[in-house]
Amino acid sequence: MVDNSVALLIQLSIFTQNRLMRFWLLFLVVVFSFNGNSQEIKKKYLGIYSGEIPSYALEIGLEVFQVESTPIQLELKPAGIFIERLNSIEKTGTYKVLREDKTGIYLEGQFDGQFIPESFILYKAEKRLERKGIYPQPEVFLKKI
Predict the structure, then answer these.
(1) Measured in whole angstroms, how far is the alpha carbon of residue 80 from the centre of its chain?
(2) Buried b (16+ CB within 10 A) or exposed e, 34-57
(3) How many Å separate Cα 125 from the centre of its chain?
(4) For residue 64, what are the contacts with CB-CB under 8 A and spacing of at least 6?
(5) Considering the entire predicted model, what is its pTM?
(6) For 4-63, what is each residue's pLDDT tens digit?
(7) HSE of 76, CA atoms in CB hemisphere, 13 A
(8) Is the dihedral of CA 13, 19, 24, 26 positive or negative?
(9) How far, in Å, CA of 133 to CA of 140, rounded?
């Protein structure tokens, strides 16, 4: 009777001796490593996007507050960093590409110290960024400037 660890060592020694298997393993590792690093935004889509968050109602308990419209700027930088400017408040965070298709790039952004991620859609043809507002903020479309 052969011990399980001895059987595993025999299989591994066969694997290391087989050049074709080593080649395919190395090939798969290289292909998947390139695929993981390819999720970056092209330089032409980086830059400053500007727009205005429309006014909305904020309900706190029984009271309803009206929040005025506010200008917003979002700057996409290389290496997954973005800066959001609301009036005079500037926040920095990181973004990652969730997926990309021929019409848009779907992003998820996380501000430093914020637990809820924000969602963005970058429409390639129009160079327009849609910011999905966190409730109760409405969605806003930003144009590249």
Answers:
(1) 8
(2) eeeeeeebeeebeeebebebeeee
(3) 19
(4) 57, 58
(5) 0.69
(6) 665 655 665 555 566 666 665 555 544 454 444 446 889 999 999 999 999 999 999 999
(7) 29
(8) positive
(9) 7
